Amino acid sequence: MNTSAGTNLSVGRMIASALLAASPLTSIAVDDPYEGSLDRSAPRGVETVKFSVPGGRPEEICIIPPHLPFAKYRDQDAADEKSLAGYDFYKAGNTPKDGAVAILPKSKSTSAAVEIYGIPDGSTKPEVETASYCLGVAKSGKCLAKFKQTDNVFTTTSTAADLGYYHVARILGDICEIKPVVLRTMDIEQHKKVVKLASDMGVHGTVRKSWDLFNKYYANPKGSSVAKTLFTSDFTQIYGALIDNTSGEENYAEWAKVGENLSSARSFQQMADPRPATAILGSTQFSQGNVQTLVGMRDMSEMILLDYLLAQSDRLTGGNISDYNFIYYIEGGNVKDANAKKADKVPTDAVKVTVKKLTIKDTDAGLLNGNVFEQKGYLPRISHMHPDTYNRLLAFAQKWKEDPSVKDFFHKECTFSTSQMARFEKYLLNAASTLQSRHTAGKLLLDLDLDEYFHSALAPTPTLPAAPK
Questions:
Q1: Which pTM was predicted?
Q2: What is the reported pLDDT for 5?
């Protein structure tokens, strides 16, 4: 791995600023380097990390993205992006800190992807990964990340969707617990070895069919149906989204059991109930039931909004909605939260409850096929939202209309094609207009802020003067 002299962090920031100040989408030229097959030489991001490839083939690249100044990125996001950009698919060694990782073919679920594993303790990555080695790593190693590529035959997988979900979620206030994502390329000849490993390991089912598709694509890359969405412009590499792996989550059973009829879920019905939240819950007591109801209503409204914006087609087909156990607690007159598995900083004497909180880890089935949430008419049924999410949506829509750099960001950094840009714009402006109209008419209530809802419970008990003797 090496970082080119012209793409250090400070210079990258200058390049990113120039990109964000470039011409609007409407003036994109025919020879636009950001349209179609990925041009690896086109300026992107704040840093471009390069990786040597065996056989002296062209270097692979990983792009660390700029952060939109009006989005709410986590303090840890930049460090997580840096970690993702440190994974060297070919370096010898035995720890991710060295950049050394094992690369395995995804063997479960439906879509083909390269899984990045930490090398198990006490072992060293061999020069050639075999099926038996990969099977051993899958049992004793830890999955660190997944490299997902666009395909739309057996499954719906879009690089643009994965990148878009990350940044849109942060724009809307860091909603739905979405992991960081970076843009990455991989050498075709090296990827062929992973495709063969899938066969050698006995991978079967739909995911095996997805793996076998690559043999068809590699037979004629330029003439394939994915020439513009899978391959780099020199057709020596493929590109995709490298995503920090989600771990510790569970299947959101209560929401998953309703199948494609999401409106029959209790949280949906409460979120669509026109009455104020206080009337739905019946009290403002800081209890497990009340916190779960409010968190579920917020998660439902934000999942619908996010999936509507990104034209999600695969959320309701099973296994694509997950949750974490989160602890909500009172400290300093505010409601705070922490993942239950990372809650060592929660004061032991704090008033606290444990509830289920949504996490969306499947973000790749967007901007390719039908928009399920549009078809089902879920957006106009949102009757409760968090005020910050609502206000950020309206501000985002306004910036999209007025600031060309915002459109350029999604075109260049998230690889949105011009047609995907137009589609996203349609959903963004319609969502803002629809929800603003509902709010003005009193049909959308911004009453899901926990601090505001539990205000009376958070207020300190006043100290009364002593009774006179």
A1: 0.90
A2: 36
